[in-house]
Amino acid sequence: MKGHQAGLDQLLTYRLHMLTKRSDRGIGERYRHKLDVSVPEARVIAVVGAFGPLSIMDLARHTHLDKSQASRAAEALLRQGLLARCASDEDGRIVLISLTPDGRALYRKIMPIARKWNDGLLECLSDAERQTFERLLDKVLAHAIARED
Which of 56, 70, 71, 115 has the fewest C-beta atoms lying within 10 Å of its C-beta? Predict the structure, then answer.
């Protein structure tokens, strides 16, 4: 049994999951302490701020949350007055989520925290290592996306 476990910690998916969980926990503490928002709420604000008004389906896809998680986070932010609903100009049946002025102000606070956290995670790498890591990560990600098709 021990031999099987020793191999698990070398699987890319396992290692990425561990990194994601630790990263979410660390940045989540900062979001809660500094801004009183959860990680899903911060992701929703960041994605709507970056990509503009989105449907819940597009929001879920861009945040990498399932539809119910994205919807719950959006509902909480709507109640707080950080998001607003509007009809799509292209299809009036589609409801889009956009940032309110307070939501834009929160977005401007979230992004520096996210950048600082990201930079902190990568500070153990030299500039050359970071460039190589980011290039290789992009390559693996593109390959993973291509495998889905």
Answer: 115
Q: Closest by alpha carbon to 54, among 43, 44, 64?
A: 44
The SS3 of residue 59 is helix
pTM: 0.83
The enclosing H or E element of 87 equals: strand 83-87
Which tens digit of pLDDT belongs to each residue from 104-125? 999 999 999 999 999 999 999 9
Q: What is the structure's pLDDT at 102?
A: 97
